[in-house]
Amino acid sequence: MRWLVGALVGVFLASPASAYLKAGPNVAGQGAHHRLQGGATNDTMATALSAAYSFRKVRSAYAGPSVKLRRTTGGTQDIGFAAQGDFDTAAAATFCNATTCFIDTWYDQSTNARHATQPTAANQPAFIQNCLGTQPCARSSASNHYLQSASVTWTSAVSSFSGVGMRSAGTGSCWLAQKGANNSFGFNNTANNWVVSDNIANFFTLAAADNAWHAGVGIIAGAASLGRVDATETVGTNIPGTSAAGTLNLIYSAGGDTCNTTEVLLWDGYQLSQNERTALTNNQIQYWTPLPLDTFATPAAAYSLRRLKSTYAGPGIRLRRTTGGTQDIGFLGFTGFTGAPLDTAAAQAFCNATTCFLDTWYDQSGNARHLTQAGTTAQPAYIQPCKGTLPCTRTTDVNQNMAYSSVSPASPLSVSAVGQHAVRPGGCTYAAVNFSNILGQNATLDITVLQATGAVNATAAFAAWHSHTGVMNGAASVVNIDGTETTGTVALIAGSGPLYFSPGAAGATCNEVELIWWDGYALSAGERAALQANQKSYWGTP
Q: Is the confidence at residue 253, as pLDDT, over 80?
């Protein structure tokens, strides 16, 4: 079988035709991870927050609760914080057991006591317990679902907003924060857009994939107005802002969309610096981002050198060392927006002073389609470090690969892989389903190829790491490389056969860290963008 896959790699890839998890302790700052570190917080900066709402503690001096919940069976209860400043999810789960809960009050963690409330039960945003991984969120799905502070006389037209949110349905406006009914910050009434606006005539938008969590910053400061979504900043239109009196509205669905948020921060009369914006969004990304498969349809198979789903409790890989013996290597606990990485310390201890290879790559989908390779000379190498400080798998021979015995794929087929075509000539196959349906990189050209009956070729620079996602769906087929999409026509080749991972053609060195396959399911444009953004955040792809 190995020679046949190698031959297919040569045929398909030699021819030119052919980028928010349960929040756990930040290990770099144990005991203080609830504070927004790096100069972008009320703990470490001279300018205090004007208002702060979050399902984690953002100021170490704050001693109050996070939210007041109301349950449909009757009664309200304040829910505070557990150890290390995390939201007390256990207390919330006990109070909301076998019923639905809503947010009566979201308490302000600044020193200003601008608590956001909604006395009308029918208008209260929903409390969703397992919204962002295993962490909660506030959800608004109608224009009258919102929280509101008491009237405030805002001191300046200059405003800095920060929020962590997701629009999971609809394309209307989702305001995470609306200051004085004018200065607004959230999702625009266009698909896949974030907006900063004075809600009068001046606004600018930033790209932000729907159905994906984002950490955003918006600054309204005249000609210095700007926005930031995750790691990308955009200089905006001149927004004069307003200093008029008014309330502060939170989690406001202007068009009946489904809007979710876990954190909203506001500075009045203060413009966050470049360093503060970077530190703030980095901290939010590290704390809030869910594991990638927590918010996706269950795949047919999923392999990675990180944990992909919060509920997966098994090991990641089984290593074999040349000096003898095998050992399963698991994952560390959540370290924030960076996810749950492979336990590289355990791998390093097992592989100390010797070379390790992959005996088994465990399937995290729940379908037990584990990739294996019994032949020791055909096992891919385990390389640590490989991608920066992160590990990878490596094949340097046409006979090196791993396989699951037999699958019968159904159309449409979606495949995602994070890999590097490091040495050529010779192409890299990141996945081959039933021998024939292939996602990989060409032997001599800087392209990724999605091929079965027909092909889609997309630009992918040689020797660079890429996030590759392909959907075989007839005339609606598409390849997403690092966020850039190319369309074409590819028809699935049906039949039964093995699922192969990472065989390389002769002369190629192929590195891979992640492979996910959906059977009978076409990832949407929003899902492709969200998956690519998550892979970029973790693996550092372009």
A: no
Pair of tokens at residue 478:
């598409």
Q: Which two tokens stand for residue 25?
A: 């302790």
pLDDT beyond 50 at 7: no
> H/E element holding 163?
strand 159-169
Written as one string, the DSSP assignment of 501-538 is: E--B-TT-EEEEEEEEEEES----HHHHHHHHHHHHHH
Report whether pLDDT(19) > 60.
no
Q: Residue type for 372, please?
A: T
Residue linked to tokens 């966050």: 272
Q: Indicate the DSSP class of residue 263.
A: E
Helix (H, G, I), strand (E, B) or coil at 340: strand
pLDDT, position 2:
32
Q: How would DSSP label each residue in 354-410?
A: S-EEEEEE--SSSS---EE---GGGSPEEEEEEETTEEEEEE-STT--EEEEEE---
Choices 2.60.120.200, 3.40.50.2000, 3.40.50.12780, 3.50.50.60: CATH for 2-21+297-539 = 2.60.120.200
Length of the chain: 542
What are the backbone angles phi and psi of residue 243, rounded to the nearest 5°?
-115, 20
CA 277 to chain centre: 19
Question: Backbone dihedral region of 325: left (phi > 0), alpha (psi from -120 to 50 degrees) or beta?
Answer: left
- Residue 40: partners with Cβ closer than 8 Å, 6 or more residues away: 272, 275, 276, 277, 278, 279, 280, 283
Range(s) of the chain covered by CATH 2.60.120.200: 2-21+297-539, 46-61+110-287
158: alpha, beta or left, given left = phi > 0 and alpha = psi -120 to 50? beta
b/e burial code for range 322-337 (CB count within 10 A of at least 16 → b): eeeeebbbbbbebbbb
SS3 178: strand
Our measurement of the distance from residue 229's CA atom to the centroid of its chain's CA atoms, rounded to an integer in Å, reads: 13
Q: Does domain 46-61+110-287 bear CATH number 2.60.120.200?
A: yes
Tell me if residue 539 falls in helix, strand or coil: helix
pLDDT over threshold 50, residue 231:
yes
Backbone angles phi, psi at 416, to 5 degrees: -130, 140
